[in-house]
Automatic annotation (TrEMBL):
Keywords from the UniProt entry: Calcium, Disulfide bond, Glycoprotein, Heme, Hydrogen peroxide, Iron, Metal-binding, Oxidoreductase, Peroxidase, Secreted, Signal
Domain Plant heme peroxidase family profile: 104-398
Spans through the membrane: none
Predominant location category: secreted
Name of the protein described by the UniProt record: Peroxidase
One Pfam family here: peroxidase
Transition state stabilizer (site feature) positions: R141
Catalytic activity: 2 a phenolic donor + H2O2 = 2 a phenolic radical donor + 2 H2O
Enzyme class: oxidoreductase
Molecular function per GO: heme binding; lactoperoxidase activity; metal ion binding
Protein species of origin: Populus euphratica (Euphrates poplar)
Length: 401
């Protein structure tokens, strides 16, 4: 409590500094990161930028990290986020508005049947992410791909011929082995009790916290679906859609425009394969040029980085390892990696929200992200839940024999 209050106070003190120094230095940080990765930085524009703006940004990052620490620690063991939130407030829904509205989910769901469920999940996620930090983002994405198709029902985890997971659109999804490892221990501790959909939901929350993102309480009671079709995997947005399509897709899942913008903020961490964006770099939409909505120096950087479609590139070009709102600042600077990211800033229905999340302290984004993630995790299709089961292995449905 105490550290959170002083954190809020400090935030007010450093806010003008953060906002002022956030105005410049994006390329410098990108360049720094690129060098950090071991890649050789050759672009003259980048070099120039790097030297012109030597002072501000380093300071920005340093202050930023320093002030964030207490909040992170606080959030890990304190779940009373509403009371403790001292940042600026806009009119947004609170976590309390997002309690599961039906009777399917509840917070104490496993308190008697499997009291260790959450700690087992947390133990495994922590161990795997310590060994390979990139898995955290992958788990978060896996949860989105699960919930985006007939609700959070673990259908993405099924590994049979013709399943969502086997679809071309799912080929860069990762993290399945983490879920399988958790499930194996869970079955020993409390057999046939904890669903794979619940495990994936909690794992993506824990992964977010490990990355420095917010904590939120997860209600439980999801059932695992028995159906998974590769065609359905193509329903999940891939990055080329227009905003109307995205809004409609979110709406069909009970999510609104604010949720769309806030959840896209997950791209503050993680990577894309170059295959997802190369089409923006050359002959975009038959123009013979690169996508005009892409900053040209950033585009040059991407051209160097993306010689192969299988190469990885950070979704957040400036602070790829920090769970922060810099993703939105990148959009203001025409540095959204995916076309859908950048479109959030060119469409009048979403751009004011991008500005709000970019210009407020990062904590404001964290808070809204937790709110929207709770909604994402609560997407359930009643018919799927009615016909659902508790799988004993997350990669296959239970057999009837
Ligand atoms: C607005 C709709 C969205 C679109 C069009 C989209 C698209 C994409 C694409 C194309 C990639 C890169 C895939 C690749 O090339 O390998 C990606 C990665 C990622 N997405 Fe999204 N996404 C969307 C929403 C979300 C949401 C709602 C979340 C989570 C809450 C999310 C979390 C992630 C993460 C964490 C990664 C990085 C994964 C990794 O590093 O393994 N995305 N997304
Ligand atoms: C958005 O994309 C959909 C599907 O491709 C298309 O039917 C629609 O006309 C597009 N809308 C706009 C405003 O471009």
């Amino acid at each position: 409590m105490k550290s959170s209050i002083s954190f809020g106070f400090l935030l007010i003190l450093v806010l003008p500094l953060i906002l002022a120094s956030a105005q410049d230095g994006k390329y410098e940080r990108a360049a720094y990161h690129d060098n950090y990765e071991g890649a050789v930085q050759k672009d003259q524009d980048y070099e120039g930028q790097y030297q012109d703006q030597e002072k501000g940004p380093a300071k920005y990052d340093k202050n930023y990290e320093k002030e964030r620490m207490p909040a992170q620690n606080d959030q890990h063991d304190d779940q009373g986020e509403e009371e403790d939130y001292h940042g600026p407030s806009l009119e947004i829904p609170t976590l309390l508005d997002n309690l599961p509205s039906d009777d399917l989910l509840s917070f104490g769901y496993y308190s008697k049947s499997c009291p260790k469920a959450e700690s087992i999940i947390n133990k495994h996620v922590t161990k795997w992410v310590e060994e390979d930090r990139t898995l955290a983002a992958s788990l978060l994405r896996l949860h989105f791909h699960d919930c985006a198709v007939h609700g959070c029902d673990g259908s993405i985890l099924l590994n049979h011929e013709g399943s969502e997971r086997k679809a071309e659109a799912s080929k860069s999804l990762r993290g399945f082995e983490v879920i399988d490892a958790i499930k194996a221990e869970m079955e020993k501790e409390c057999p046939r009790t904890v669903s794979c959909a619940d495990i994936l939901t909690a794992a993506s929350r824990d992964a977010t916290v490990l990355l420095g993102g917010p904590y939120w309480d997860v209600p439980y009671g999801r059932k695992d679906g028995k159906v998974s079709n590769d065609k359905d995997a193509e329903l999940v947005p891939m990055g080329r859609e227009n905003i109307t399509t995205l809004i409609e897709f979110y709406q069909s899942n009970g999510l609104n425009v604010l949720d769309l913008v806030a959840l896209s903020g997950a791209h503050t961490i993680g990577r894309a394969t170059c295959g997802s964006l190369q089409y923006r770099l050359y002959n975009y939409a038959g123009t013979g040029r690169q996508d005009e909505s892409l900053d040209y120096r950033y585009a040059n950087f991407l051209k160097r980085k993306c010689r192969w479609a299988s190469e990885y590139v950070d979704l957040d070009a400036t602070t790829p390892r920090t769970f922060d709102n810099v993703y939105y600042k990148n959009l203001q600077d025409k540095m959204g990696l995916l076309h859908t990211d950048q479109s959030l800033y060119s469409d009048s229905r979403t751009s004011p929200i991008v500005d709000a999340l970019a210009d407020a302290p990062s904590d404001f984004f964290s808070h809204q992200f937790a709110v929207s993630m709770t909604k994402l995790g609560n997407i359930l299709v009643p018919a799927v839940q009615d016909g659902g089961e508790i799988r004993t292995k997350c990669y296959s449905v239970n057999s009837n024999y």
